[in-house]
Design goal:
The chain is of the alpha/beta class and 235 residues long. It is built from nine helices and four strands; from the N terminus they run βααβαβαβααααα. 56% of the residues lie in helices and 10% in strands. Helix 5 (111-141) packs antiparallel against helix 7 (162-189), helix 7 (162-189) packs across helix 9 and helix 8 (195-204) crosses helix 9.
Length: 235
Amino acid sequence: MSQPVAKFVAYERVSTARQGRSGLGLEAQRKAIDDFAASRAADVIGRFTEVESGGKDARPELTKALHLAKLTGATLIIAKLDRLSRNAVFLLTLRDSGARFLAVDMPEANDLTVGIMALVAQQEREAISRRTKEALAAAKARGVKLGNPNGAAALLAAGKGGAALRATVKANADAHAADLADVLADICAQGHISLRAMAAELNRRGILTRRGGMWHVSSVRNLIRRIDHSGHANT
């Protein structure tokens, strides 16, 4: 009698809406999952793609994927568990779901493995939050006004000249860079050493640029240059 065909429910994840629109990163995950399924002669009966921002804990597509896996007796499959090993929300949801799971890069992982990873990730998350609050509190204690300072528009409305405008804008930028020097040093100490990784971590921590926007490679590069120039570098 032939063996029943194994069933997989695929869960793929990208961390920003921009990546979700472009498909960046999804192709590699999908290929890894499909290749593994083919090697096991298994059917992928469902596929769920999560486009999540660093500041949000909701994982609606993961919830749907786990639900389908439980209803059909299928196994949830992901491409890379190590990529998600610091994501406490994902790990805790996976651990508590009761569904079978399989990671292509760590096929030997089990409930105990995920449980330990979840505890470590939760502790790290709490430590990052505590260090960020301490760094911001230290900046505030130095008399620095946190948040987005008044920029060029307010100065122009007040009728100030170009030289005064440039000097004020520079002073605001330098002060903001000084505020973030300790935070950036902590981010680097956590292993986020590329410009892209630093930008992602700043965004994940909910820290805004001086103009109140999101961080990108170019804005992190400018921040590092300003910190180095002002002598506040701790990295």
